[in-house]
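Dear colleagues,

As part of the handover before I leave the project, I'm documenting each prediction I ran so the next person doesn't have to rerun anything. This entry is a single chain, and its sequence is reproduced below.
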Amino acid sequence: MKSLKLIPLFMLFIIASCGSVRVNADYDKKVNFDQYKTYAYIKANIDKVEISDLDKKRILRSIDETMSAKGFTKSENPQMLVSIFTKESERVDVYNNNMWGMGFGWGWNPWWGMGMNTVSVTPEGTLFIDIFDAKSKDMIWQGEGSGYLTKDTNKKDERIKEFVDKILEQYPPNIIKK
């Protein structure tokens, strides 16, 4: 009976883990991020990204919205350069509850049991947002977000915005000054 109560909790965990964007960020600890106020894109790098032009526009538009909300300005003479990179994979989850059995209770009450394997394949994507110093061309920050993807065009804008927002929550890094 306890295991039956845990199944809905387990399924809720699985559904929640599919919905969230997992993020990670890394940065050059010697860089003073307060000096950066303007940005532009590295067009040559973005042109190489192997996703549809519509998805590229969605990503860049989301970056622009988030950067603007953080007080950064897009410029022809930028202090930082932004690039993106994506990769896609499939997440395969196998739930094995394949059991066979027979038993007897009090009296003659035989029972049979059977389970099955459930396989779930979810397209998963990773978006990298790289930020470079415009003068030195050195990478100063990299954010990465991974999560499920959607083919539903009505939900793509929302999902891409969620990826970008979660990644850029990490920029600029919270550096504890000594």
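Confidence is low (pLDDT under 50) at residues 1-17. DSSP finds four helices and eight strands in the chain.

All the best with the project,
I.
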